[in-house]
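Exercise 7. Predict the structure of Delta(3)-Delta(2)-enoyl-CoA isomerase from Nepenthes gracilis.
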Amino acid sequence: MCTVENRGSILVLRLTGIGEHRLNPTLIDSLRSALYQVKSQASSSAGISALVTTADGKFFSNGLDLAWAKSSGSRSSMMERLQHMLEYFKPLLADLLTLSMPTIAAVTGHAAAAGFMLALGHDYVLMRRDKGFLYMSELDIGLTFPEYVTVAFREKVASPEARRNLLLRSAKIKADEAVKMGIVYSAHDGEEATLEAAIRLGEQLGARKRNGEIYAEIRKSLFPELCKHLGLVGRSIVAPRL
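Solution. The predicted structure, encoded as tokens:
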């Protein structure tokens, strides 16, 4: 499901296998367990500087596991499962927002719906330009957005035009266009180049060895409405380096 490996000072969280990496309770649990491992390693080692999240295969993540929801049988049970997954996904975003290090998503395949949200939950998104797109599919499949998703887009995607294209047109956005929209930090040729660029960025961000707890609190302060929806409370920390 997920692995965590060291690449020098960088921890690489990888969604493994060649499937769509659909987000169901099992995969969400696996991701949260991996992030707990990342947090534990970071707290026990001063040499860890950043997290890079990536995935094997054609997909970064193709969103919620609709097949799992439908397998429940009745329409009412399906809707209950969908609602359950939407609520179950929220703590995963909270884990990313509170992680005491820079976080980078190396998107080397399609990132759709909740898979796009998973990438957007990182501080930086790097993307492969020759394959893959970002896509919010809800309008096309007939689902509304939970409030925390629209809040995340309001606070993390500055351009009203970009939000309109993504949420009201369900546009499929490739890497270079996403860079112009300010959603993606940089675009790269190929899977390996994207991952290596993410690792280099992580090394640059971690080079000054800043206080991770303060980094996390400043990150939370940038997205106050999203933090409110995720049940996160800010706190003041004073750890001067003077």
